[in-house]
Amino acid sequence: MTITKIPFELNQKPGFLEVEYKPNQSIEESGFDLLAGFGFDVNLAIGYPTMRGYVSAYEGCGYYTASAWIQVITRQEFDKVDSEQPARIITTVDVNDTLYDLGVPFFAMGFPAEIYDAPCCNLGESEKLTWIADTFFVTMPSRINDQTISRLAGYQWGYTEYKPGENRPVDIVPLQVTDQSQWQAHIPVLQMNFGAWRYA
Prior knowledge:
- By secondary structure, this protein is mainly beta.
- The chain has one domain.
- The chain is built from three helices and twelve strands, in the order ββαβββαββββββαβ.
- A hairpin with a 7-residue loop joins strand 10 and strand 11.
- The longest helix has 14 residues, at 180-193.
- The protein is globular.
């Protein structure tokens, strides 16, 4: 397991995120056993990455802790395994269907918010897929911050998977801490899909 500590400041008080990042080694630990009967073999999740991000230390409490997570996925789809250039690049905001229909861009919300994700089998019709998540710890918009969603911290992680074979090879991408420029690069896709919100 890789554990990364990332500093942040929320409501003028300092804190630290911890990110746990490792290969999926158990469908029970990752919760994939809950998905049995949804049309795919849940055991295929073994070897894909799992990610958990949470506040490990923070000097505020109560309303000070209100926060959220936004995650943006970039899919680089390859028509051939040995291709160096993707045939398609698709960027989307990662939210469940209910929140998307309601126009809410958050992956998670809380006091403070925590995030967990464990992707699996997103190849589709491609021969190879590089799946990259940009994960952002953000403010919860309120009167306190002029109803604005602002980045507090961010990191990038993901994997490359290949056309199914006997052992479905998966290469996990190392986790990297990102800066404000990565958040700014994704604001256009957030505005396009969730334009009712204010981003800074």
